[in-house]
């Protein structure tokens, strides 16, 4: 069961996620009218109950600071000091405020859906999730009963052969704790889906937690957590403590054969290792892939991607030399741990204490409604999204966004054409890729079909498990079939955006299209400094260190002249050095290599957005709003987007696990390389926000 972890990457969009801002899948249903999502017109929204958004305000500027010396402090310091992180969060800022607003909208919709006991379709799914998730008394009364059949099956695994068979049968229900398996767009033929098996099996966020001395305390806390979960599941305390050591030793062995998140994020090739089933079977004799495909109800393919082969080879060895009793312990722990957020209070609280409080510094658990909505979004997010866009996304927002996207496209094209470091040969291919970009705005043109997902008012965990199995079968059902380019990797209510290199598409869900990112009533410079920079960011991902490895059709191919690739690397090395120098906390530096893709996208995106803003406002007088020039307001709204603070533990967590640099460095990293910023604020050479000569980074 991989409900709460262990670390199994969701691979349908794992490549996209590693390249994206900041994401599974039976044949799609016949096209539905996206403008008229299928739900009763009775769904309403009480705007008065929604939390506010975070707009740029002149009053928030800290005029005791100099924008050229401390731009982050100048634009955000005052606001952050007055708005501490809420107890139920580990970070707080513009993104989180919009997420709270989206959650409040979702709650109203879920409550209305749950009230209709005769509902069908997506309304029934949403209502059943909400009603069972909010029935705390029933969940507590049921205790561990919803998992008992699974625990009984694990207790019967007295041979390694039975363990291997259990791994196959549990995977067929979408409950594989050991490795990720799903569909992947074929790197060689991006019109088709293939199967992909990836690494997984770790309860901690990254393989480095098991070996890095800096993570020693977290590893010890994890062992204690494992023991507590086993004890809660019925194992005597003394036995639980011993078994916890076995689990940690088991996972440490897996970790040694695993790639780190930093390695994975900067090497897209790791996802694609095409092999025949015969060759895969030779590598893992104790876990034959031919039998695995058959157990999942899949036809034997000509090839599939066995990603991180060393990991799978190690699993095969462990199936031979790790006693069945230790496999039982490992599987029992992860089965209970993965289900803990959906079980009784004792399990919920232990789960929170380790994964949120200990690992990330969260002081208070989120109230139940927020947690239920997180589960609903994880299991049936696009079903809820059909209700969301009906009440929360005005049609004029989509029209305005389409104009912005086109303007950003035009500006990016001009920037590529004017590059002085790229040959005409490579430039032509870069423009071919530009011409093939597909933008998606707001919500899908074709909604996913949820027929076959049977939910009820009987069990919260039962609904979560049903959705997990449904989503798994939907996703692997695509293997060997053509890619459906209408699919989305994020639901409309998610505050985010992404670029998918295998589809060469940029995607902007409805929930991010609000202030400070986007406001249909705002002046151009504010929208270009907000969502314009995000649009540019996603487009630039097509040309970052990983996105550039994919061609116009999404094929993984080298379309660069050798000299141009070398010139690109020389420029990105300077950006790596820039971010390596940023100190997030005493002795804790940003990893410029790990965050390179996002930093390239920020730099290219902001430059592109600035050019587009200047073109859109050409010939019009500068309004000098509130005493600020148009250019100043452009950069100030960009800074407002990155208004964000973190708990100490969350900051450490993100430095290890996040491909994005902390927000305060994103606010200054790109602008400091732009002469337009220095001109806007009359900055002088030598000031921190002025990078000159060899230190200035110019890429796209």
Automatic annotation (TrEMBL):
<keyword id="KW-0482">Metalloprotease</keyword>
<dbReference type="InterPro" id="IPR008753">
    <property type="entry name" value="Peptidase_M13_N"/>
</dbReference>
<keyword id="KW-0645">Protease</keyword>
<feature type="domain" description="Peptidase M13 N-terminal">
    <location>
        <begin position="68"/>
        <end position="444"/>
    </location>
</feature>
<dbReference type="InterPro" id="IPR042089">
    <property type="entry name" value="Peptidase_M13_dom_2"/>
</dbReference>
<protein>
    <submittedName>
        <fullName>M13-type metalloendopeptidase</fullName>
        <ecNumber>3.4.24.-</ecNumber>
    </submittedName>
</protein>
<feature type="signal peptide">
    <location>
        <begin position="1"/>
        <end position="23"/>
    </location>
</feature>
<comment type="similarity">
    <text>Belongs to the peptidase M13 family.</text>
</comment>
<dbReference type="GO" id="GO:0016787">
    <property type="term" value="F:hydrolase activity"/>
</dbReference>
<keyword id="KW-0378">Hydrolase</keyword>
<feature type="domain" description="Peptidase M13 C-terminal">
    <location>
        <begin position="496"/>
        <end position="697"/>
    </location>
</feature>
<dbReference type="Pfam" id="PF05649">
    <property type="entry name" value="Peptidase_M13_N"/>
</dbReference>
<dbReference type="InterPro" id="IPR024079">
    <property type="entry name" value="MetalloPept_cat_dom_sf"/>
</dbReference>
<keyword id="KW-0732">Signal</keyword>
<keyword id="KW-0862">Zinc</keyword>
<dbReference type="InterPro" id="IPR018497">
    <property type="entry name" value="Peptidase_M13_C"/>
</dbReference>
<dbReference type="Pfam" id="PF01431">
    <property type="entry name" value="Peptidase_M13"/>
</dbReference>
<keyword id="KW-0479">Metal-binding</keyword>
<dbReference type="InterPro" id="IPR000718">
    <property type="entry name" value="Peptidase_M13"/>
</dbReference>
